[in-house]
């Protein structure tokens, strides 16, 4: 039995320990904001946080989560108003939107580590997050805008209890 948290909610898992976290999030607890892109750790669409660090959930086995805290895009803010999400909206960062939850989760992790990132910091942190629509310039602009918001580096707010899956 693996015990962990997702967005502040205690969870238990006793299935295949090698199952990727992405499968669990989308198929077992219906947190579908995290996207499947390549399934091979190459695109970043599936990025979530484990203990505050950005990870590729398609490459994160359930067995690695014991005692850890997972945050998904749904857990970033109960209202969708995390400062990084606000900045994303202000610059109209998304085009089709498919990659954007992964981009936002990667950006939030960057801003926690580097509250005032340089262009080089942004490029280094974001280079593994692929956008087939080519929104990279707006993503960079959104990250810089978010860096001007004092709460951007604050820990993610604990949302109201989510539904679905074993508690
Ligand atoms: S789906 Fe996980 S990195 Fe592409
Ligand atoms: S906005 Fe379409 S893939 Fe990034």
SS elements, strand count: 5
CATH class call of the largest domain: Alpha Beta
Order of helices and strands: EEHEEEHHHHH
Summed up, the helix count is: 6
CATH topology of the largest domain: Ubiquitin-like (UB roll)
| CATH architecture classification name of the largest domain | Roll
Overall mean pLDDT stands at 92
The N- and C-terminal alpha carbons lie at a distance of 12 Å
Ligand identities: FE2/S2 (inorganic) cluster
Count of discrete domains: 2
Biggest sheet: strands side by side, in what order? 2-1-5-3-4
Low-confidence stretches: 157-167
Oligomer: single chain
Can you describe what's shown?
- 32% of the residues lie in helices and 13% in strands.
- With 167 residues, the chain is of the alpha+beta class.
- The chain is globular, with a radius of gyration of 15 Å.
- The protein folds into 2 domains: 2-76, Beta-grasp domain (Ubiquitin-like (UB roll)); 83-153, Orthogonal Bundle (DNA polymerase, domain 1), CATH 1.10.150.120.
- The model is unreliable at 157-167 (pLDDT under 50).
- The two termini are 12 Å apart.
- α3 (83-90) packs across α6.
- It has a 5-stranded mixed sheet with strand order 2-1-5-3-4.
Secondary structure elements and pairings:
Blueprint: E1 2-6, E2 9-13, H1 21-28, E3 47-50, E4 53-56, E5 69-71, H2 73-76, H3 83-90, H4 100-113, H5 119-126, H6 136-146
Parallel strand pairs: 1-5
Antiparallel strand pairs: 1-2, 3-4, 3-5
Helix pairs in contact: 3-6, 4-5
One FE2/S2 (inorganic) cluster binds at residues 94-100, 131-133, 135.
């Amino acid at each position: 039995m693996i015990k962990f948290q997702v967005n502040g909610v205690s969870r238990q898992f006793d299935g295949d320990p090698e199952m990727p976290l992405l499968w669990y999030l989308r198929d077992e607890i219906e947190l579908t904001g995290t996207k499947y892109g390549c399934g091979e750790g190459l695109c970043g669409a599936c990025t979530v946080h484990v203990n505050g660090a950005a990870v590729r959930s398609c490459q994160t086995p359930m067995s690695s989560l014991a005692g850890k805290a997972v945050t998904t895009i749904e857990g970033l803010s109960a209202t969708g108003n995390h400062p990084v999400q606000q900045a994303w909206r202000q610059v109209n960062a998304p085009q089709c939107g498919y990659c954007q939850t992964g981009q936002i989760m990667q950006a939030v992790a960057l801003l926690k580590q580097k509250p005032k990132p340089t262009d080089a910091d942004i490029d280094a942190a974001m280079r593994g997050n692929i956008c087939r629509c080519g929104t990279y310039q707006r993503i960079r602009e959104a990250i810089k805008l978010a860096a001007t918001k004092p709460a951007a580096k604050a820990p993610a707010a604990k949302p109201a209890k989510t539904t679905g899956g074993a508690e």
